[in-house]
Write a structure and sequence with these properties.
Layout (H helix, E strand, L loop, with lengths): L7 E6 L6 H13 L4 E6 L13 H12 L5 E3 L2 H4 L6 H12 L4 E6 H5 L7 H7 L1 E6 L9 H10 E2 L2 H6 L5 E5 L7 H9 L10 H10 L8 H8 L7
The structure holds adenosine-5'-triphosphate.
Adenosine-5'-triphosphate binds next to helix 1, strand 4, helix 5 and helix 9.
C-alpha cells in the first residue's frame, strides 16, 4: 500500500525500568528515519518472558517522566490496558486500523529481532509494519535461516522506502549502544547501589519512592550525593 505521511515508530518493551539505552536508541531512530513520532509501548503480560517486577502503573509513570519533555516521544499504553497476553501482532492490527495508510516502523533491538521467528504470527507483523533493527556497530545481519532469507528478500538500505509504503521492509540501522539494561539496574538497586546516571533522574526518584526492586537504595550514598558530598569512605 502507498503511504500517506511520515512513519510512526513503535518501541515496545517491558521498561522495567526505562533507561538511557532505550531513550538514546529511540532518539537516534526518530531523527535518522524522519519519523513522525516514536510511541513507547510498555508490555502488559509478556508472552516470552517472566512478568515485569514493577507493576504497569509504575512502569507507565516512569515512562511518562522519561519522555514527557521530548518532542516526538509519545506513550501508547494499549498493551497494559488490554487483558491477556500482549502479542505485538494484536497491537499492530489495532494501530493499523487507527493509522490507516501511515507507515508503521516496529523498532527492535538486535536481541529482540533474533527472537522474532518465535513471536506469535510473526510473518503477519511484516504485513502490518516495517521492522527496523537497531544494532551495535560492527554487527552483521543474519545470513542464514528464516531471518537470513527475510533480510535478503525484504532488506532495504533506503530510509525513503520506509516512507513510500506502509509495511513489509526490513531496515537495519546502527545506533550508539549504551551497555545499560533494565535487569542490570534492577540488580544494582537490589544490592543497594544507586543507579544514578543510567536512567533519567525523575525515573530514579520514582523508583526510590516506590522502593521497587529493593528495600530502598543506599541511604548514605543518596544523602551524600544530594548534599553534594563525595566521601569515598
Ligand atoms: P531486561 O534487562 O529486563 O531484559 P532491557 O533493558 O533489555 O530489559 P526491554 O524493555 O526488555 O529492556 O527492551 C525493550 C527494547 O529496548 C528491546 O527491543 C531491546 O532490544 C531494546 N534495548 C534494551 N536495552 C537497550 C540498550 N541499552 N540500547 C539499545 N536498545 C536497547
Amino acid at each position: 500500500m502507498n503511504a500517506r505521511s511520515a512513519p510512526v515508530g513503535i518501541f515496545g518493551g517491558t521498561f522495567d525500568p526505562v533507561h538511557f539505552g532505550h531513550l538514546r536508541s529511540a532518539y537516534e531512530l526518530l531523527h535518522a528515519l524522519r519519523l513522525r513520532q516514536v510511541r513507547f509501548m510498555p508490555v502488559g503480560n509478556p508472552p516470552h518472558r517472566a512478568a515485569p517486577i514493577a507493576d504497569a502503573d509504575l512502569r507507565v509513570r516512569m515512562l511518562k517522566a522519561a519522555i514527557g519533555h521530548q518532542p516526538g516521544f509519545v506513550l501508547d499504553d494499549r498493551e497494559v490496558r488490554r487483558s491477556g497476553l500482549s502479542y505485538s501482532v494484536d497491537s499492530l492490527e489495532s494501530l493499523r486500523e487507527e493509522l490507516d495508510a501511515v507507515p508503521i516502523c516496529l523498532l527492535l533491538g538486535m536481541d529482540s529481532f533474533l527472537g522474532l521467528p518465535k513471536w506469535y504470527r510473526w510473518r503477519d507483523i511484516l504485513k502490518l509494519a516495517h521492522v527496523v533493527v537497531a544494532h551495535r556497530p560492527g554487527w552483521k545481519a543474519p545470513s542464514r535461516g528464516a531471518l537470513g532469507t527475510l533480510v535478503r528478500d525484504r532488506g532495504t538500505e533506503l530510509v525513503d522506502d520506509l516512507h513510500k509504503t506502509t509495511a513489509g521492509a526490513i531496515y537495519i540501522h546502527e545506533v550508539t549502544q549504551l551497555e545499560i539494561s533494565s535487569s542490570s539496574i534492577r540488580t544494582l538497586v537490589s544490592k543497594g547501589i544507586d543507579p544514578r546516571y543510567l536512567l533519567p533522574e525523575r525515573v530514579r526518584e520514582l523508583l526510590d519512592q516506590a522502593k521497587c526492586y529493593s528495600i530502598g537504595m543506599d541511604d548514605t550514598a543518596t544523602r551524600n550525593q544530594t548534599e553534594g558530598g563525595s566521601d569515598p569512605s
